Amino acid sequence: MYRFLLTPRWWGINLFVVLAIPFCVFMGTWQLGRFEDRVQTHEEAEQRPEPGTRSPKPLDDLLPVSTETSGRPAVATGTYAEQFLVPGRKLDDRDGFYVLDLLRTDSGKALPVVRGWLPGTPGRTEVPPAPAGEVTVTGDLQASENSGTTGVSLGGGLPEGQLGMISAASLVNLVPYDVYDAWVTLPEPEAGGANGALKPVPAAAAQGSGLDLKAFQNLGYTGEWFVFGGFVLFMWFRLVRREAEAARDVQLGLAADAD
Fold first, then answer.
1. Residue 168: what pLDDT?
2. So what's the pLDDT on residue 40?
3. What residues in the chain have per-residue pLDDT under 50?
4. What is the reported pTM?
5. What is the 3-state secondary structure (H, E, C) of 176-227?
6. How many separate helices (H) and strands (E) can be counted in the chain?
7. Residue 99 to residue 96: CA distance in whole angstroms
8. E strand or H helix at 75, and its extent?
């Protein structure tokens, strides 16, 4: 009754099933592993001390930025150079912009420093000048922004002196020197005069360290792959059963043999 399983047509069906089911199991297991990795990273991030409670370290000791070093206090010494304003940034649900100054270090490279946030629109709000002379800054280390970072403007056409994304890639064509592939945000207002008007920008959690939408997408994909594998097995069983019933009817003379 089951001789049809050895026909060329069924060899193809059987081969597909034999390959499809392990593939679905593998992909489902891989997606589940991705979800578990994100959960573990989130738990590790939750257990890390707050940025302000950790001892500062020299900038070069914390590079490149990783989920482990993101948010760590970094120390750098240099002289402030070019200033850029980063529009479209919210703080406490208020619209405003970041004030970013490039700190030229002894190595010749510049570190983007977000000195703080101001409400209003760039060009219409007075911006406190950066401190003159050599300064030592201690700021919470952050990875360069990308197109998925909240608040990033990719539309272009910004006025001179404004920046849509804080990254070495966006700054390399604007200044005649190398820029670190990282930036820091000052956790405390700069002391003295009008500089106190700048509000500190809290350090953001490293990308991939939280249970965001992507984590639950991984979990959803896990279920989809396992369901698809079960569906393949179910359909194969249904096809075999239907073919076997048809063969049995032919043997019993209940249906004409199509062959």
1. 92
2. 73
3. 193-195, 257-259
4. 0.64
5. CCCECCEEEECCCCCCCHHHHHCECCCCCCCCCCCCCHHHHHHHHHHHHHHH
6. 3, 6
7. 10
8. strand 73-91
